[in-house]
Design brief:
single chain; alpha+beta
């Protein structure tokens, strides 16, 4: 094997992106909104649901999710 191949083996592989997940209560504080308003917008029957991750009864929001940025943009356009 060449020296370059040996060096590549020693290089750490890139770490996958680990999302920053927040609870609805934390997001409510960040956005100055009632938690109940956010809960309503994460439900399946919502017209334009807030993108979220569900772990059973637990709902989390990935702040780095591009769908969240798109959702916010759509909300801004409605004004």
């Amino acid at each position: 094997m060449s020296a370059i191949t040996e060096l590549k083996k020693l290089e750490p592989s890139p770490q996958p992106h680990v999302p920053k997940l927040v609870e609805l209560a934390e997001l409510a504080k960040l956005w100055s909104l009632p938690k109940s308003w956010l809960q309503h917008h994460t439900r399946a029957g919502a017209v334009d649901p807030l993108p979220c991750l569900r772990f059973g009864k637990y709902v989390r929001i990935d702040l780095a999710d591009p769908r969240l940025a798109a959702w916010l943009s759509r909300r801004k356009e409605r004004r």
